[in-house]
Protein 1
Amino acid sequence: MKIHYSRRDFLAMSAKGVGAAVISYGLMGCSSSDDDEQANAARGEFLNGVASGDPTHEAVILWTRVTPEVEGELNVSWEIATDEAFSNIIGNGETTTSAARDYTVKVDAIGLMSGTAYYYRFKCGEGYSEVAMTKTLPEGAVEQVKLAVMSCANFPAGYFNVYQLASEMAGLDAVIHLGDYIYEYGRGGYASEHAAELGREVLPAGELLTLSDYRTRYAQYHSDAALNALHAKVPFITVWDDHEVANDSWADGAENHNADEGDFTARKTAALQAYFEWLPIRPWSEGNHQEIYRSFSFGDLVDLHMLDTRQLARDKQLDYADYIDDASNTIDSARFMADVTSDTRTMLGAEQLQWLQASLLNGTGKWQVLGQQVLMGSMLLPAAIATQKLSVYQYAELGALAQLAARAQAGDPTLTAQEYSYLIANQYKLTPEVMALLQLPAIPYNLDAWDGYAYEREVILATAKAKGANLVVIAGDTHNAWANELTDSHGDNVGVEFATSSVSSPGLEYYLGIEADQQSVTEAGIVDLVEGLKYTNLRDRGFMVLSFDHNQVKSDWHYVDTLMSPDFSEASDKQASAVTLAGEVKITLG
């Protein structure tokens, strides 16, 4: 992973001469002797938990937040040890925090041993934080890597039982969080139907617009016991998606930002500053809150490349409404295809794309993994379904009925009496409007995903293909679980994609009104309709665990049975798995 140290940082570390030195986020220095008496007089509590993240072979970010008794500068010390009792402390340090960084504390503990578990804690005044665990990345020959993958946690939608379930899982090397760590909506907004009864109405009450707003929302999330339990158990590797700023954002705007809400750049700057304050992520350099793409090496087994497909350089999403021919009320497909495949259209930006290509080509791990936000697999659905004119069930039923009608009109002698009777009883459903819907072409159902940025997707797949890489793409964003085989424009399978469901945000069952008794048939219908799609879950909230060894990668999807109560169980009947063998580019369901 890239780590950027200033000369001041390096001198400070050299002077410490301890097993683990400290880099203070935002270049926070230890207070001078003149300030000690005043700073030590201040007290604070650790009400927002502790966390670790961005592990390397010899370092890890340690994070906490202090709630002060009174406003002012606080001295905060930290310790890292090889045992939970802290009888073997191998590093410590002291720093200060204040309202200028919302009383968050972020230190870079360095000089650690690779592939090693550690315990850490913070102290302010006489009070200690809880003791938490973390782990550095392994070097050299590695037999197995186990990563939990999750995204999309909407506080008012229900309890964070998914985080709790993950915190109880043994053997995790890291948690990969693919974004939508928070949501920006105000009270009564998205998925808030049960917020009041659950005691989970958002703070602040309004939509997030200012630095203070975003900080308050992060503080509320970090008051959640389940989230804090997971942070205290395993290091996080994170990227943001859109809701850390605003819904369906791109580089210069967002669907959920209006002109009367002020300058979007100012809003985005505030949002990303709060993200860096409240997440255990290592900045590229002092004050750089814009660039988060970076790589992590798990020895000779996994190279993980974390991408920013959202905030850094993304062009505005295309909109089908801009391609409707008013005369025929159909999509101008030629103009749409020209725009969606244009080589000037970007999601990553030139610099990030070049970095990714070089990282893939120079990667030495057995598996090359892209950690990013949106689906890369091509998800083409009949336009009648993609535009929600027909449900999957209705499309299948009416399509089969239309085929029967065509066979009868052609005088098909194999048409049975039962089929003919069914046709006679139901042919009234085949209105001209329905027949027109059935004849619409297949189109991308989600232009916010890679289907809306086809050129750069092709460049990435071509690079992996040239390398002969064992390519695994992981995604979140949709709130549903998926397993895709990734195919390039030549029809060659290049890699696989595993996507996680959400922590709490509702998925397609919410948008398409899929009832529980229609779940299986709808999922089977979509898998049948989408080329390369091998698995989906459209109703359940959960996360996935990727287990890598030198022979295969296995994805296990885990789901909870409810979000409406903190008393929950794993929905064992919904658990699913898929396996891809090294050297192959196909998915076998377990």
Note: The longest strand covers residues 89-97.
Protein 2
Amino acid sequence: MSTVPHRDDIPRKDQWDLGSLYRSEEEWEKDLQILSSLEEQVHTYPGTLSESADTLLAWLHLQTRIEELDERLGYYAMLRHSEDAGKSENQDRLSRYTQITSRLGAATSFFAPEIQQIPDATMEELLADPRLDEYRISLNRVLRYKPHTLAPGEERILAMQQEANQTASRSFSALLDVDLDFGEVDTPEGPRTLTQSSFGSLLEHRDRAVRERAFRQFYRSFDQHKNTLAALYAGSVNLDIYRARVRNFSSALESRLFPDDVPSRVYENLLSVVRQNLPLLHRYYRLRTRALRLEDPAVWDTRVALVPDITVHNPYEEAVETVLASLAPLGEDYVTTLRGGLLGGWVDRYENKGKRSGAFSAGSYRGDPYILLNYKEDTLRDMFTLTHEAGHSMHSWYSVRNNPFQHYQYTIFEAEVASTFNEQLLVHHLLGQDQFPGQDQIPGQKQDRPMRAYLISKHVDDIVATLFRQTMFAEYEKLVHEQVESGKALTVDWFRQAYRKLLQAYYGDTLTIPDLLDLEGLRIPHFYRAFYVYKYATGISAAITLSRKVLEGGPGEREAYFRFLRSGGSRFPLESLAAAGVDMTRPEPVQLAMDHFSRQLDLLEEALFGEPHGEQK
């Protein structure tokens, strides 16, 4: 029986080397004291920023010093805590850092409101000083909020509401994570406790009766609390609209798109193009029905793998080489840099007691772009996780080297593009046959038919989950907020009817949609962070488009992709993607992703059934 090792039992070569942040604890402690001491200087600046360019410049230098030191200290403390949260010294380090930065955050919070209150003419005079050029981008990003910033007294009132504003989301989390008891589900392996986490894995069970039992039992619990769930979500939606109106936005959607400077037509294009291509999704469900040999397919059959897990053996070092081979189209410099990082100290590779679950990339300005994994060599998905996180880290690596600290950080909108791009190249490489029509063979690994079916099926399922499903969620959020903005009420019945119409549109007439599934719209945690999920769908669309450009193009297309990686936070997301040749204000990138999905269905059908491309009539 395998056991999870303690941190001290993990070989050093398999741990990350945080020396690029701090070579010793003493260095970290010294910088923490310096950061704490800077608070005294902060208190001399409120009310002075409009006096002269000299004063404003001095403040901006101090602010940058604080933020850069804060980031370096914070990343080190967070990474140490992530590698083993059970160690008291890791808990203590993170706690002391948080206490100091909380005080500093309160002390420096005067900056944005004070800048926004400076008269336009005065601000123009200050910005005319060439010494402020290095801060021009970051200052303009603060100033663009001026039309949506209230008077100091009103801002103070809004700030005092922050704790109360968390009531709906916190209550929702408490209900789902603590109070709801879903019971146990009988399986051939024995009873399994049904939780938010185990629900997904139970829907992947090979025994169809287990899947149905888990589904019905899970949603019966939500049915018992539907009025509370509806009230909580309605409260969150009303809060979104209140905030938007108070800050002079025309809608909650506009207010949420504003920080990334994304016009509403990007959102509308996504919904429209996906709607037009729903017949492809319906074809996918028919293909699943045939592959699973089901006579009466239902929603609880949509998660089980079409191809059972295939046993693989991919030691970490071999997985790295496979990933690097897939990324060869990006050139020698990219591959060489990444090899040095993946094998030389960027990655904390394996599970140990107290280590954070899952995976992440943590790039900072003064340290290497570290990666946390819990790698397992018998799980093919972990190799995809490796290249996904490597995409984030290389994005950070290029951004740091091409931007000052003030605007090197890219947005979530952009982050998922670089990581998903790497996944596209990996699946392309592993299949050993081009994914694009009009081309036959490419260099890569030729797979046997079961492995081909497994890889294509995984790729197709990822597109369904990321592009189609997240767009359905995005459409629902829009409908819900528009219901309130038009002066109408949100009720349990309205929520369920609106969501059922979407289910019917997206699932088509192939699958049975159980009555209780229309409660799904009340159980999605992301809805308490309104208009966020669309970024997953636009991200994969942009990644597919860019990967095709790089694979089908030449040095010019590759260089365009590197312009995107190097942009960092110097441009808004749509500008950085446009520099790479992807215009997300137009429908073409989403449609190209749909065309790619159609091609994958052809290949999947061939791999599963040995038939020519195209749906069997």
Note: The chain has two domains: 7-164, 245-312+409-617.
Protein 3
Amino acid sequence: MNTGRAAALPQPGYTEPQRLVITSTEVRVEAFPEDGSAPRDIDLSALPVARPMQEWLASAVAAATGPSGTLRTPASHHNVKSMLMRFTRHLASFSRPPQRPDQLRRAHIDGFVLAGGRALHRDLGGLRSLLRQAQPPPPDEFWARLSTASTPKISGRLSSYSEAEFRRIMSRCKRELRAAATRIRHAGAHLADWRDGHISLADRDAWEYGSLLDHLDRCGDVPRSANGTPQRSVHRHGGTEALTAALYLTYDEMVAATVLLICLTGQNLSTLEAATIEHLRPDGHTEGTASALVDLVKPRRGSRSAHMSVVWSQTAPDGSRSSDQLDTPFGVFTLLTELGHAGRTRLGTNRLLVFYTHRGGPRGRGLRAGLPHSAIWLWSRTGANLLCDPVPGADEPAAPLHLDARRFRLTFLELYQRPVAQTERTLANQYLARNRGNIAEYQRLVATVLDQQVAAARAIRPMPVLTTTDMVKAATDPAAHDLAAETVADLVTGRLDTVLAGCIDNRNGPYNAAGQPCTASFLLCLSCPCARATPAHLPAQVLVHDELQARRSRMTPLDWAQRYGTAATQLADLLNQHGPGAVDDARAGATEAQHDLVNRFLRRELDWS
């Protein structure tokens, strides 16, 4: 996002830190996460392979974790070491392990695949990505086998939630956030009154409560005695957890907020976990639809595509307007910005997800930014209390609903049929095609939409097609086709050509005010009463029809049916009037100029702007 600020540049005398460290006792890479968190040492001297292999793998890790590499998050830095440990343990199991990179062979990958393991499908992809960076490159035999190695996920395929389950999940999350907003706003107002002197010492409980909130806001913790236990006043006002929850979102509430944001945007958990509150307001804070332009990062898209600016607006994912703030991405984003302000100020961070935890762990209690990847799974087991849809005809009670960020994303993609941080082809072939949760229902929906589009196309009077014979006859007898003589002459010479037809009345069509030039897409000529097709238009019609059919594999079936179903049917009916031979001849005889015209038309370069 361009905010108009100059980029930070190194100071004079700056030298790049030494990231690859190879000494007599260690082989390690110092990796710098893109989010600005503390550097991480990836120690490869513990890998159970010979020193030349360690150094070779370290050079690849250094390249992959560098500024232009693909491993730019703390999680990916941890995962690459785990992956290399599994692979090198396999290499060490051979009777004659490879001592140098040039000794790697096809058999080393074959054995790795046969050994299996729950993470094998990820390890193979991770090895391919990593060893592309290796210098010298891996031996050809080894690389050829690694390039083609694949294995299915042991965990099986994910399926989407049902619509009812999805609604219950979002409803549960909204209840958590509404309760949190009410509590934090009430405490914030009490603290403001206390600081402004509006609470008298005579009201001992209210004054003491304001004092505790003030201490918590300034210090990030409740007042404690010398031995670390909370002071008695803390217990009089509900204890540590109740007081910290008065100013800060709790761990469970932050999980609920993150789940809701995934359900409303379709973004990955890791992308939202690293999100910040930095944004622009394209709406200019006017009375129109409120929106925020937010910068997000999805590292696995590669260095060129990882950064993306997305618009979160005050509209629900289905395009409808809602008065409920928690029905829209913009509403949840602004609420989290508001409720996390105190914690964000205390931490000195701009991260969107900020909460207070009492769950301990390596860092103990306190404020945190971001969210552990296991948080949603733990919440579903301990606090969400959600159930699956009941099985029809079964006497058993409904099973607990397992919450999974990947399933939220998959359900979003299925429900709304639009790509999120991926191409339409990836959405169709790698997400929806693998989802078996509601595939039969989806297929029925696509079939219904296609039937509707075909029916709509054939309910419209087809565009008249003038054959070569008709053109000759019209030149001598224009009235035979209800055309003026000059119109016929212009039609014959091509002066009335659009892309797919000729237009006999540009100022009195159905898509513009009377007397005004038509500004409709040329694709609408197929259903316009002012359009006339001649043999000269057949090559363009064939090329456009071919491209619309080709787009079926690059789009979701529903999106294709909705956008191109009618036009594809009309073009198919037009081509059927000419016969297969004439269509093949037109395709083969299409000129370079006609190909260029069709390409510009389909890229929407010819649309009225």
Note: Residues 163-195 form the longest helix (33 residues).
Protein 4
Amino acid sequence: MAVLIQVRDAHKRFGDQVLLDGAELSLVDDVKIGFIGRNGAGKSTLLRALLGNEELEKGEVIHHPSLRIGYLRQHDPFQAGESAMDFLMRDSGEPDWRCGEVAGQFELKGDYLNGPVKELSGGWQTRVKLAALLLHDPNMLMLDEPTNFLDLRTQILLEHFLRDFSKAALIVSHDRAFLKATCSQTLELSRGKLIMYPGKIDSFLEYREERREHDRRVNSTVIAKQKQLQRFIEKNRASAATASQARSKAKQLEKLQTTEIQVDEPTVNIRPPSVDPRSGTALRCESMAIGYPANKELEAHVVADQINFEIEHGQRVAIVGDNGQGKTTLLRTIVHSLEPMDGTMKWGYGVEIGTYAQHVYTSLDERQTVLENLEYSSDSNTTRQDLLAMAGALLFRDEHINKKVKVLSGGERARLCMAGLLLGTANVLVLDEPGNHLDVETVEALAEALDLYKGTVIFTSHDRHFVRRVANRVVEVRDGTVKTYFGDYDSYLATVEAEIDEGERQRGKASGKSDSDSGAKPKGVEHRERGKDSRKTEKELKNLEKKIAKLDDEKKDLTKKMLKETNPNEALKQHEAIEKIKAELVEAEERWLELSDFS
């Protein structure tokens, strides 16, 4: 196991903000790592340092001689007029057949491969960039927020690509579902320190919260003891008879120390708009068509028609579908940014709509400060404390609340728009990709707030964890129409996964791959061979059952010990042992199922 990149004693700051404070890191050649941290913590700075594009104030970054980094470019690398095939051949120097073979892994074919690449959507352009990465044969991938603006299908294709990629990867993302599906370890940057955890993101977040809760309980006990000792000292130090006891207690008091709880302050806590719950129909669409009217340059374009659906007050509706199918067009229509091209759309009585979308946060009043904008947007009953708390939750703290809107970045304007919306009185929220520009903790806090919200939510999001947390209804935009999906979000995900798997099977057949090509035996032959030795199979099944029961008991015992462990290093060792047992369990259970099928 070679160390491809090593970081030693890294220090970096911007002004008064410390980004790296003696950070240490080793990246090995066969591990995929999810890299998380609060916005502004320094993740992108560290990536640039690893790439050699950012100098450290102190410390060093050491590259292995065999290192070949594949970095997902965020900028536009395409030339005017060139096709995706032209770009892939120019960028990689590989022949057209090889470029076409790799492009097929990302469903790039036909006009998507041979038409002008600059006319493709952002998601399809990302597919082209990923194909280019693979053509360079990297042994270390670095992906910075790769799922931003990618539709579900492209995300799943990217997951499959990473699943089959046998080398190392470092992936910065706030998308928990994506990190869980692709990364076996988790790296966190917090307060200038790098913390490597040998497990997936969900386990890491649970472990981190357990540690913090343990530290809080210990601190409460220590503080109570400190107060008790302090009272005794103050009461008895003046008396000659008890002065020696007071001195003894003072020494005990000096030894009692609380544990610093490693958490970025202030903790994100977003409150939803306070509205009265309503019942009945919030929105009704009948025979509606959506699209864009004719202008001097373009003819009228219908994106989807014959749209019939209703949304009830209190529902949280996820609008799903591939990029380019019309999700944003639908949202723009229902908030009156576009007029329906046909049919009718009617909102219920007393509806107040709050909108979060790019066309909103790019039109903020640039003369206002952050604080002035929030005061203007908020409910008249909002206290200054509530206003500052919401600003802080969306990362506007201290002097940042006095910044002018005109100097804010696109991400900062988006967060400001979200803060103002949540401080308002809207009883219907229409949100287009609300998780973009927010980190893991803030996305989770937003999901919790929307869960408590008494109004109606209509939203799009490519973050599967967020959609699963928030949505209780799914509406799909596909093939020129909009319809209610009869099933929950998990069943919708399963449908898309099945379609992608079928596409990959078809491409495998088209490229001439088969069981016999790969050296695998036909299933019928395997079946007969297993049948020849049924006694051996039965014995192995019994041994596996004993092994599974034993491993399960060991896992339970270790889990109990880990939860009680007070030493973080020991807890990490126990977690590693648990993960190893889990892997053995999966292997044993899969073998048991395989043998059961043919016994």
Note: Residues 514-532 have pLDDT under 50 and may be disordered.
